[in-house]
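Running co-folding for fe (ii) ion.
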Amino acid sequence: MLAPAIPSRLASRANRWARPALAARGLVASRHSDSAPEQPSTRHVAAKASATPREAPRAEQGLDAKLGDVAAASPFFVAGSQQLQRAIQVVLIAGRERASGGAQAHVLTIGKDGVSKDDLEALLQAAEPAPFGRDSELVIDPSYRKALQIKAGAFVLDTILPTREMLADIASLMQPSAPQIFAQLHKINIYGPGGMFKAHADTPYGNSQFGSLVVTLPSVFEGGELLVQHTGQTATLPLGGGGAPAADQAPAGPEQAPAGPVVHFAAFFSDCIHEVLPVTSGHRVTLTYNLLAVGAAQRSGGHGSAPLLSTVRPLAGGGLPLVSQLRTLLGDASWHPEGTTMGYVLQHKYATSLWELNDRMFPGVLKGGDRLLYAELSQGLGLKVRVVPIHQNLDGDGGLYWSEWEEKWNAENGEPVRTHEEFLADVARFKGWFVGHSFESDQEFLESYFDGRGDGGWPHWVGDSGAELMRPAMRPAKEVASVWVGLTPTLTRPSSVSYRRRYESDVEEDDWEEREDNVLPKSAMAINQSRWSGNEPSFETVYSSVAFLVKLPAWGTPERERAKGA
Ligand SMILES: O=C(O)CCC(=O)C(=O)O
Ligand SMILES: [Fe+2]
């Protein structure tokens, strides 16, 4: 008696969509393929486009061609060095066992000459192998990350690092409208000869995390460059490496040379793939931090983009070519005379907690080039811009479900019937991405979907052409984008992560078994830890791909007049 347990609405939905809840109950075989994520090689720094190239209409190809300029116009990292006035003291707190053995906390004093041999020894003694997140597991794999770590909590710094100056630079370039940013100390990392960390994105700690910060403690090492990539650009940051004693790099002070060392730092948006190249000699000792922005959303939220533009204008140094191209197109009466909606896939991904997706965070939390573009479109051109999540379906079948038995049941009960051939056609069609309705309604959708309540909205699928929205929505999106920009280069990293339900502990005893392995399918995730490893495993916060839906006004309207400019 399986069929009556399936509410008819869900049953008809199941014909078209994944049904993990049923799979978990053993009613259907799970169709999620768990192929191992493809790991990038150390030197493989450019994200490889795996999407089918879209066939954009000729007029719109110019828009895509200008995309690189958006990335180039705004930085994705901030790096520099600073001469400290005082030596840095690091107190290594002895563990309980060691304390009982009479060990004392060890105090390191790191002055101009950097980490001494004895201090390095003490650091190595206190350290343990550094794990990282692979899918949902914390693993130690020296072929991927070879490093030692000392976790925050096992040491105390007496010096305020990052310095106020570092934080100010980071804030003004990376979070210009956040009233306050914070650096949350994560750990000390020690990379000896051969030490490295292959390409990964940093697992977000919550939706206020925008970046990661690395500060190197001065020591002599070679190699160990930090590579950070973003939309085809790669920054190579030596962070004080290169063999010269760190103190030698300080500008020679005349009489009163500062007692402190020179420290190097690099901050980057933490969705950017980065890696630490192998250290060839010496020891590279870093402090890592999560960068959190507080209040960014409130400050520039709502519809007011004016404050946003004033914060990004100094970064831009002129208009974006993408925007002037759009302006030219809008000035052509034959280009979408009725008006349309343009979709733009943002260059960065945004940390969101799946169950707290929130579009009110935008535009305040926008990063780099995305922020610049938003400001230009909304304030510069006066266009209406909506921010929506993009979801990804990896499997090709998206966990789509078809059962002969159930089709028979559907036929007998007047439900829509889909043939197996139709199912196979859908399988091919559903590989790719779909545009969410809004963060809030998608949350509702995903939750109801897993609950079997089945009352969420339907998303719109984006075809491989990147230009089409394929499925009619049960609750139609307000806009339907006919022009897509940026789809191919940005959405190239399929997720390999599944997410466990958070409220397992709330469910009834009886439901426990079936819900235990009831994971969010890759196909429905608001994206995506990606096939790249993270620095931590995480269920809670993921990176979401995000799109702008930009309303392009009809010819002859005042909005079009304003947008096309003089
Ligand atoms: O130590 C570094 O330079 C960065 C290491 C890193 O990427 C991480 O800990 O996530
Ligand atoms: Fe990292």
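Result summary
DSSP finds 17 helices and 29 strands in the chain.
Residues 77-296 form a domain with the Jelly Rolls fold (CATH 2.60.120).
Job closed.
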